[in-house]
Amino acid sequence: MRDDSPAMKNNNELELLITVVVGADDERSARAACRDLVQTVGGRVVASGDCSDEEPGCWSVTISRDSAETGQHVAGLSRAVRNFLRELGPDYARHRVACEPPTAWTVVDHPELVDALVRGGERLLVEAWAGGSLLFGRTETVDPDEPPAPTPPVVTEFDEQGRARPRLALVVDVVTDRRAGAEWPARAVASRLSRTTEIVEYSVEPPVVRVSLDLGPAVGEPEEIVLGATSALGGSGWSRVSTDGSGATARWSAAPMPPSGVAAIEVTARSTVDTGRD
Q1: CA 58 to CA 22: how far, in whole Å?
Q2: Cβ pair 136, 219 in contact under 8 A
Q3: What are 107-162's pLDDT values in tens digits?
Q4: Residue 178 backbone class (left: φ over 0; alpha: ψ -120 to 50; beta: rest)
Protein backbone atom coordinates (compact mmCIF):
# COMPACT_ATOMS: atom_id res chain seq x y z
CA MET A 1 0.00 0.00 0.00
CA ARG A 2 1.29 3.43 -0.88
CA ASP A 3 2.20 5.79 1.91
CA ASP A 4 0.63 9.18 1.14
CA SER A 5 1.97 10.86 4.26
CA PRO A 6 4.01 14.11 4.03
CA ALA A 7 7.16 12.02 4.46
CA MET A 8 6.55 10.42 1.06
CA LYS A 9 8.94 11.89 -1.49
CA ASN A 10 7.99 13.18 -4.89
CA ASN A 11 9.14 11.05 -7.81
CA ASN A 12 11.42 13.87 -8.97
CA GLU A 13 13.43 13.92 -5.75
CA LEU A 14 16.65 11.96 -5.52
CA GLU A 15 17.99 9.89 -2.69
CA LEU A 16 21.64 9.02 -2.17
CA LEU A 17 22.54 5.58 -0.85
CA ILE A 18 26.11 5.26 0.41
CA THR A 19 27.13 1.67 1.15
CA VAL A 20 30.41 0.97 2.93
CA VAL A 21 32.07 -2.44 3.13
CA VAL A 22 34.03 -2.39 6.37
CA GLY A 23 36.13 -4.89 8.29
CA ALA A 24 34.57 -5.32 11.73
CA ASP A 25 33.94 -7.91 14.44
CA ASP A 26 30.15 -7.61 14.35
CA GLU A 27 27.28 -5.49 13.07
CA ARG A 28 27.39 -3.06 15.99
CA SER A 29 31.11 -2.44 15.43
CA ALA A 30 30.53 -1.89 11.70
CA ARG A 31 27.81 0.68 12.35
CA ALA A 32 29.95 2.38 14.99
CA ALA A 33 32.84 2.63 12.52
CA CYS A 34 30.53 4.48 10.12
CA ARG A 35 29.15 6.90 12.70
CA ASP A 36 31.48 9.77 11.82
CA LEU A 37 30.67 9.40 8.12
CA VAL A 38 26.93 9.36 8.91
CA GLN A 39 27.28 12.62 10.82
CA THR A 40 29.55 14.18 8.18
CA VAL A 41 27.17 13.52 5.28
CA GLY A 42 24.02 14.23 7.30
CA GLY A 43 22.41 10.85 6.64
CA ARG A 44 21.16 7.87 8.60
CA VAL A 45 21.84 4.14 8.53
CA VAL A 46 19.02 2.25 6.80
CA ALA A 47 20.55 -1.23 6.43
CA SER A 48 23.50 -3.36 7.44
CA GLY A 49 24.48 -6.88 6.52
CA ASP A 50 27.07 -9.59 6.98
CA CYS A 51 29.42 -10.10 4.01
CA SER A 52 31.70 -12.53 5.86
CA ASP A 53 30.65 -15.58 3.82
CA GLU A 54 32.47 -14.03 0.86
CA GLU A 55 35.06 -11.90 2.66
CA PRO A 56 35.69 -12.97 6.28
CA GLY A 57 35.16 -10.23 8.84
CA CYS A 58 33.35 -7.87 6.43
CA TRP A 59 30.07 -6.04 6.96
CA SER A 60 28.12 -3.67 4.73
CA VAL A 61 26.49 -0.53 6.10
CA THR A 62 24.10 1.52 3.95
CA ILE A 63 23.48 5.21 4.66
CA SER A 64 20.59 7.18 3.17
CA ARG A 65 20.70 10.91 2.45
CA ASP A 66 18.50 13.25 0.42
CA SER A 67 20.05 14.96 -2.59
CA ALA A 68 19.63 18.60 -3.59
CA GLU A 69 19.36 17.44 -7.20
CA THR A 70 16.00 16.56 -8.75
CA GLY A 71 14.81 14.77 -11.84
CA GLN A 72 14.93 11.24 -13.24
CA HIS A 73 17.15 12.09 -16.20
CA VAL A 74 20.77 11.04 -16.68
CA ALA A 75 22.22 14.50 -15.98
CA GLY A 76 20.50 14.94 -12.61
CA LEU A 77 21.26 11.42 -11.39
CA SER A 78 24.92 11.57 -12.44
CA ARG A 79 25.35 15.07 -11.02
CA ALA A 80 23.98 13.94 -7.64
CA VAL A 81 26.69 11.26 -7.40
CA ARG A 82 29.47 13.53 -8.67
CA ASN A 83 28.56 16.33 -6.28
CA PHE A 84 28.64 13.92 -3.37
CA LEU A 85 32.06 12.64 -4.44
CA ARG A 86 33.32 16.23 -4.59
CA GLU A 87 32.13 16.69 -1.01
CA LEU A 88 34.36 13.81 0.00
CA GLY A 89 37.42 15.27 -1.74
CA PRO A 90 39.25 15.49 -5.08
CA ASP A 91 40.59 11.92 -4.91
CA TYR A 92 37.04 10.57 -4.75
CA ALA A 93 35.73 12.89 -7.48
CA ARG A 94 38.02 11.23 -10.05
CA HIS A 95 35.97 8.03 -10.05
CA ARG A 96 33.79 7.29 -13.08
CA VAL A 97 30.02 7.55 -12.65
CA ALA A 98 27.74 5.18 -14.55
CA CYS A 99 24.06 5.96 -15.09
CA GLU A 100 21.01 3.98 -16.19
CA PRO A 101 17.83 5.68 -14.95
CA PRO A 102 16.37 5.34 -12.36
CA THR A 103 19.85 5.10 -10.83
CA ALA A 104 23.42 6.38 -11.19
CA TRP A 105 26.34 4.90 -9.26
CA THR A 106 30.05 4.66 -8.73
CA VAL A 107 32.30 2.28 -6.81
CA VAL A 108 35.37 3.49 -4.90
CA ASP A 109 37.44 0.31 -4.66
CA HIS A 110 40.49 1.89 -3.02
CA PRO A 111 40.89 0.76 0.62
CA GLU A 112 43.25 3.63 1.46
CA LEU A 113 40.66 6.22 0.38
CA VAL A 114 37.74 4.47 2.05
CA ASP A 115 39.73 3.91 5.23
CA ALA A 116 40.22 7.67 5.43
CA LEU A 117 36.44 7.98 5.74
CA VAL A 118 35.68 4.87 7.78
CA ARG A 119 38.25 3.06 9.86
CA GLY A 120 38.57 -0.42 8.38
CA GLY A 121 36.64 0.60 5.26
CA GLU A 122 37.44 -1.31 2.08
CA ARG A 123 34.96 -0.27 -0.64
CA LEU A 124 32.35 2.41 -1.12
CA LEU A 125 29.28 2.27 -3.36
CA VAL A 126 27.50 5.59 -3.99
CA GLU A 127 24.09 5.48 -5.71
CA ALA A 128 21.53 8.13 -6.61
CA TRP A 129 17.97 6.86 -6.97
CA ALA A 130 14.96 8.69 -8.43
CA GLY A 131 11.66 8.46 -6.59
CA GLY A 132 10.56 8.22 -2.98
CA SER A 133 10.68 5.55 -0.30
CA LEU A 134 7.88 3.11 0.39
CA LEU A 135 7.79 1.32 3.73
CA PHE A 136 6.29 -2.15 4.01
CA GLY A 137 6.45 -2.70 7.75
CA ARG A 138 10.17 -2.03 8.05
CA THR A 139 12.08 -3.04 11.13
CA GLU A 140 15.60 -1.83 11.83
CA THR A 141 18.43 -2.70 14.18
CA VAL A 142 18.72 0.43 16.29
CA ASP A 143 22.04 1.99 17.20
CA PRO A 144 21.42 3.82 20.51
CA ASP A 145 24.00 6.47 19.57
CA GLU A 146 22.15 7.45 16.37
CA PRO A 147 19.16 9.83 16.25
CA PRO A 148 15.90 7.84 16.20
CA ALA A 149 14.23 7.54 12.81
CA PRO A 150 10.48 7.96 12.35
CA THR A 151 8.70 4.72 13.25
CA PRO A 152 6.86 3.26 10.25
CA PRO A 153 3.63 1.29 10.65
CA VAL A 154 4.04 -2.37 11.55
CA VAL A 155 2.82 -4.87 8.98
CA THR A 156 1.99 -8.24 10.49
CA GLU A 157 2.03 -11.61 8.75
CA PHE A 158 -1.78 -11.81 8.98
CA ASP A 159 -4.49 -9.24 8.33
CA GLU A 160 -7.42 -8.39 10.62
CA GLN A 161 -9.40 -11.39 9.30
CA GLY A 162 -6.54 -13.77 10.03
CA ARG A 163 -5.56 -14.19 6.38
CA ALA A 164 -1.90 -14.38 5.42
CA ARG A 165 -0.75 -11.20 3.67
CA PRO A 166 1.04 -11.31 0.31
CA ARG A 167 4.82 -11.40 0.47
CA LEU A 168 7.08 -9.04 -1.42
CA ALA A 169 10.11 -10.49 -3.22
CA LEU A 170 12.97 -8.86 -5.10
CA VAL A 171 15.52 -10.13 -7.61
CA VAL A 172 18.49 -7.88 -8.37
CA ASP A 173 21.03 -8.59 -11.13
CA VAL A 174 24.41 -6.96 -10.44
CA VAL A 175 27.33 -6.84 -12.87
CA THR A 176 30.25 -7.96 -10.71
CA ASP A 177 32.78 -10.76 -10.44
CA ARG A 178 32.21 -11.36 -6.70
CA ARG A 179 29.19 -12.47 -4.73
CA ALA A 180 29.90 -9.89 -2.01
CA GLY A 181 30.02 -7.26 -4.73
CA ALA A 182 26.41 -8.15 -5.59
CA GLU A 183 25.06 -8.42 -2.05
CA TRP A 184 25.53 -4.84 -0.96
CA PRO A 185 23.99 -3.18 -4.06
CA ALA A 186 21.09 -5.66 -3.80
CA ARG A 187 20.56 -4.78 -0.13
CA ALA A 188 20.72 -1.09 -1.04
CA VAL A 189 17.88 -1.56 -3.55
CA ALA A 190 15.91 -3.64 -1.03
CA SER A 191 16.32 -0.96 1.63
CA ARG A 192 14.08 1.33 -0.45
CA LEU A 193 11.21 -1.12 -0.06
CA SER A 194 11.72 -2.92 3.23
CA ARG A 195 13.98 -3.15 6.25
CA THR A 196 12.86 -6.74 6.72
CA THR A 197 15.09 -8.38 4.12
CA GLU A 198 16.50 -11.86 3.82
CA ILE A 199 18.71 -13.10 1.01
CA VAL A 200 17.32 -16.46 -0.04
CA GLU A 201 19.45 -17.34 -3.07
CA TYR A 202 22.43 -16.39 -5.23
CA SER A 203 23.04 -17.48 -8.80
CA VAL A 204 26.00 -16.63 -11.01
CA GLU A 205 25.56 -16.05 -14.74
CA PRO A 206 28.75 -14.13 -15.72
CA PRO A 207 29.06 -11.19 -15.82
CA VAL A 208 25.99 -11.02 -13.57
CA VAL A 209 25.36 -12.23 -10.03
CA ARG A 210 21.64 -12.59 -9.31
CA VAL A 211 20.50 -11.98 -5.73
CA SER A 212 17.00 -13.06 -4.64
CA LEU A 213 15.54 -11.50 -1.49
CA ASP A 214 12.42 -11.99 0.60
CA LEU A 215 11.15 -8.59 1.82
CA GLY A 216 8.39 -9.85 4.10
CA PRO A 217 4.64 -9.21 4.19
CA ALA A 218 3.00 -6.25 2.47
CA VAL A 219 -0.42 -4.58 2.63
CA GLY A 220 -2.76 -4.72 -0.35
CA GLU A 221 -3.40 -6.90 -3.36
CA PRO A 222 -0.34 -8.23 -5.27
CA GLU A 223 -0.77 -5.90 -8.29
CA GLU A 224 -1.24 -2.87 -6.03
CA ILE A 225 1.86 -3.80 -4.01
CA VAL A 226 4.02 -4.18 -7.13
CA LEU A 227 2.82 -0.85 -8.55
CA GLY A 228 3.66 0.83 -5.25
CA ALA A 229 7.11 -0.76 -5.19
CA THR A 230 7.98 0.31 -8.74
CA SER A 231 6.79 3.83 -7.92
CA ALA A 232 9.04 3.84 -4.87
CA LEU A 233 12.06 2.70 -6.88
CA GLY A 234 11.23 5.36 -9.47
CA GLY A 235 12.41 5.91 -13.00
CA SER A 236 11.10 4.81 -16.38
CA GLY A 237 11.51 1.60 -18.31
CA TRP A 238 9.50 -0.69 -16.04
CA SER A 239 7.51 -3.41 -17.73
CA ARG A 240 3.78 -3.57 -17.33
CA VAL A 241 2.69 -5.51 -14.28
CA SER A 242 1.98 -9.11 -15.24
CA THR A 243 -0.37 -11.18 -13.10
CA ASP A 244 -1.26 -14.81 -12.63
CA GLY A 245 -3.62 -16.53 -10.24
CA SER A 246 -1.75 -15.63 -7.07
CA GLY A 247 0.85 -12.97 -7.82
CA ALA A 248 2.07 -9.97 -9.80
CA THR A 249 5.48 -9.08 -11.25
CA ALA A 250 7.21 -6.11 -12.88
CA ARG A 251 10.72 -5.86 -14.31
CA TRP A 252 13.27 -3.18 -15.13
CA SER A 253 16.58 -3.63 -16.97
CA ALA A 254 19.37 -1.39 -18.14
CA ALA A 255 20.01 -1.24 -21.86
CA PRO A 256 22.79 -1.60 -22.73
CA MET A 257 24.11 -3.58 -19.78
CA PRO A 258 26.34 -1.35 -17.61
CA PRO A 259 30.01 -2.24 -16.97
CA SER A 260 29.26 -2.57 -13.25
CA GLY A 261 26.40 -2.10 -10.82
CA VAL A 262 22.68 -2.88 -10.98
CA ALA A 263 21.65 -4.25 -14.37
CA ALA A 264 18.11 -5.48 -13.72
CA ILE A 265 15.42 -5.56 -11.03
CA GLU A 266 12.37 -7.79 -10.69
CA VAL A 267 9.66 -7.08 -8.10
CA THR A 268 7.07 -9.74 -7.21
CA ALA A 269 4.19 -9.85 -4.75
CA ARG A 270 2.56 -13.21 -4.22
CA SER A 271 -0.29 -14.40 -2.07
CA THR A 272 0.49 -17.34 0.18
CA VAL A 273 -1.54 -20.53 0.46
CA ASP A 274 -1.89 -20.07 4.23
CA THR A 275 -5.56 -19.43 5.01
CA GLY A 276 -4.95 -17.95 8.45
CA ARG A 277 -4.46 -18.79 12.07
CA ASP A 278 -5.59 -22.01 13.65
Answers
A1: 6
A2: yes
A3: 898 899 999 999 999 989 898 887 543 323 333 334 444 444 444 455 777 877 88
A4: beta
